[in-house]
Design goal:
This protein is about 40% helix and about 20% strand. It has helices at about 5-20, 25-30, 80-90, 110-130, 130-135, 140-145, and strands at about 35-45, 55-60, 70-75. It is globular, with a radius of gyration of 23 Å.
Length: about 160
Amino acid sequence: MNSPNSVQHRAFDEHSRLQSKPQTLDDIYGEPENFLEIEVRNPQTHGVARKMFTDYEIVCRTNIPAFKLKSSTVRRRYSDFEWFRDVLERESSRVNIPPLPGKVFTNRFTDEVIEQRREGLERFLQIVAGHPLLQTGSKVLAAFIQDPSFSKDYYHY
Protein backbone atom coordinates (compact mmCIF):
# COMPACT_ATOMS: atom_id res chain seq x y z
CA MET A 1 0.00 0.00 0.00
CA ASN A 2 1.26 3.47 -0.86
CA SER A 3 1.83 5.90 1.97
CA PRO A 4 0.66 9.50 1.52
CA ASN A 5 4.32 10.59 1.53
CA SER A 6 5.28 8.33 -1.38
CA VAL A 7 2.34 9.62 -3.44
CA GLN A 8 3.32 13.20 -2.66
CA HIS A 9 6.96 12.43 -3.48
CA ARG A 10 5.99 10.96 -6.90
CA ALA A 11 3.76 13.95 -7.62
CA PHE A 12 6.62 16.31 -6.74
CA ASP A 13 9.01 14.39 -9.03
CA GLU A 14 6.51 14.59 -11.93
CA HIS A 15 6.03 18.31 -11.35
CA SER A 16 9.75 19.08 -11.10
CA ARG A 17 10.50 17.22 -14.34
CA LEU A 18 7.93 19.29 -16.22
CA GLN A 19 9.27 22.61 -15.06
CA SER A 20 11.77 24.40 -17.24
CA LYS A 21 13.49 27.75 -17.19
CA PRO A 22 11.33 30.77 -17.98
CA GLN A 23 11.37 31.76 -21.66
CA THR A 24 12.80 35.11 -22.68
CA LEU A 25 11.37 37.23 -25.49
CA ASP A 26 14.30 36.08 -27.66
CA ASP A 27 13.32 32.46 -26.97
CA ILE A 28 9.76 33.16 -28.01
CA TYR A 29 10.22 35.59 -30.91
CA GLY A 30 13.86 35.12 -31.88
CA GLU A 31 15.20 33.38 -34.93
CA PRO A 32 14.88 29.58 -34.69
CA GLU A 33 18.06 27.55 -34.48
CA ASN A 34 17.80 26.36 -38.09
CA PHE A 35 15.23 27.81 -40.42
CA LEU A 36 14.63 27.71 -44.15
CA GLU A 37 11.84 29.61 -45.88
CA ILE A 38 11.42 29.23 -49.61
CA GLU A 39 8.72 30.98 -51.55
CA VAL A 40 8.01 30.84 -55.28
CA ARG A 41 6.03 33.90 -56.30
CA ASN A 42 5.44 36.67 -58.82
CA PRO A 43 5.23 34.67 -62.07
CA GLN A 44 5.94 36.77 -65.17
CA THR A 45 5.28 35.78 -68.76
CA HIS A 46 7.69 37.05 -71.41
CA GLY A 47 7.93 36.92 -75.20
CA VAL A 48 5.36 36.49 -77.95
CA ALA A 49 3.75 33.61 -79.82
CA ARG A 50 5.94 30.48 -79.79
CA LYS A 51 8.72 32.25 -77.89
CA MET A 52 6.60 32.82 -74.76
CA PHE A 53 7.70 31.54 -71.36
CA THR A 54 6.94 32.21 -67.71
CA ASP A 55 9.55 32.63 -65.03
CA TYR A 56 9.11 32.64 -61.26
CA GLU A 57 10.73 34.55 -58.44
CA ILE A 58 12.37 32.35 -55.78
CA VAL A 59 12.75 34.02 -52.39
CA CYS A 60 14.93 32.27 -49.82
CA ARG A 61 15.48 33.19 -46.17
CA THR A 62 17.66 30.89 -44.08
CA ASN A 63 20.41 30.55 -41.53
CA ILE A 64 21.45 27.06 -42.65
CA PRO A 65 25.23 27.05 -43.33
CA ALA A 66 24.88 25.20 -46.67
CA PHE A 67 23.39 28.41 -48.10
CA LYS A 68 25.85 31.27 -48.54
CA LEU A 69 23.26 34.05 -48.27
CA LYS A 70 20.79 34.67 -45.44
CA SER A 71 18.33 36.20 -47.89
CA SER A 72 18.14 35.99 -51.67
CA THR A 73 15.83 36.49 -54.64
CA VAL A 74 16.33 34.97 -58.10
CA ARG A 75 14.18 34.18 -61.15
CA ARG A 76 13.94 30.74 -62.81
CA ARG A 77 11.85 29.28 -65.61
CA TYR A 78 10.27 25.84 -65.71
CA SER A 79 13.00 24.48 -68.01
CA ASP A 80 15.57 25.49 -65.34
CA PHE A 81 13.63 23.45 -62.79
CA GLU A 82 13.62 20.45 -65.16
CA TRP A 83 17.39 20.65 -65.55
CA PHE A 84 17.83 21.13 -61.78
CA ARG A 85 15.71 18.08 -60.96
CA ASP A 86 17.65 15.92 -63.45
CA VAL A 87 20.95 17.00 -61.87
CA LEU A 88 19.67 16.27 -58.35
CA GLU A 89 18.66 12.78 -59.44
CA ARG A 90 22.12 12.11 -60.87
CA GLU A 91 23.93 13.60 -57.87
CA SER A 92 21.84 11.94 -55.19
CA SER A 93 20.90 8.38 -56.02
CA ARG A 94 20.04 7.68 -52.36
CA VAL A 95 17.42 10.45 -52.21
CA ASN A 96 13.98 10.17 -53.78
CA ILE A 97 13.62 13.47 -55.66
CA PRO A 98 9.97 14.58 -55.84
CA PRO A 99 8.34 15.19 -59.22
CA LEU A 100 7.83 18.61 -60.74
CA PRO A 101 4.34 19.74 -61.65
CA GLY A 102 3.46 18.21 -65.01
CA LYS A 103 4.13 19.73 -68.41
CA VAL A 104 1.19 21.63 -69.85
CA PHE A 105 0.72 21.81 -73.62
CA THR A 106 -2.50 23.78 -73.96
CA ASN A 107 -3.61 26.95 -72.18
CA ARG A 108 -0.28 27.03 -70.36
CA PHE A 109 -0.34 30.81 -69.96
CA THR A 110 -3.71 31.07 -68.23
CA ASP A 111 -3.67 32.45 -64.68
CA GLU A 112 -5.01 29.17 -63.30
CA VAL A 113 -2.33 27.01 -64.94
CA ILE A 114 0.46 29.42 -63.95
CA GLU A 115 -0.75 29.45 -60.33
CA GLN A 116 -0.98 25.64 -60.16
CA ARG A 117 2.54 25.39 -61.54
CA ARG A 118 3.81 28.03 -59.09
CA GLU A 119 2.37 26.06 -56.15
CA GLY A 120 3.93 22.83 -57.43
CA LEU A 121 7.35 24.43 -57.96
CA GLU A 122 7.23 25.92 -54.46
CA ARG A 123 6.36 22.53 -52.93
CA PHE A 124 9.18 20.89 -54.92
CA LEU A 125 11.78 23.45 -53.79
CA GLN A 126 10.70 23.33 -50.16
CA ILE A 127 11.14 19.54 -50.12
CA VAL A 128 14.52 19.39 -51.87
CA ALA A 129 16.01 22.44 -50.12
CA GLY A 130 14.94 21.10 -46.74
CA HIS A 131 16.53 17.67 -47.26
CA PRO A 132 19.75 17.39 -45.21
CA LEU A 133 21.52 15.06 -47.68
CA LEU A 134 20.84 17.44 -50.55
CA GLN A 135 21.89 20.49 -48.50
CA THR A 136 25.30 18.97 -47.85
CA GLY A 137 25.78 16.82 -50.95
CA SER A 138 24.48 18.79 -53.91
CA LYS A 139 26.82 20.97 -55.95
CA VAL A 140 23.96 22.94 -57.50
CA LEU A 141 21.26 23.28 -54.82
CA ALA A 142 22.37 26.55 -53.17
CA ALA A 143 23.40 28.16 -56.47
CA PHE A 144 20.07 27.30 -58.13
CA ILE A 145 18.13 28.82 -55.25
CA GLN A 146 20.36 31.82 -54.50
CA ASP A 147 22.68 32.85 -57.35
CA PRO A 148 21.14 35.42 -59.73
CA SER A 149 23.90 34.76 -62.29
CA PHE A 150 23.32 30.99 -62.16
CA SER A 151 23.87 29.31 -65.52
CA LYS A 152 23.26 25.69 -66.47
CA ASP A 153 26.23 25.98 -68.84
CA TYR A 154 28.60 26.46 -65.89
CA TYR A 155 27.77 22.97 -64.62
CA HIS A 156 28.78 20.14 -66.93
CA TYR A 157 25.99 17.63 -66.40
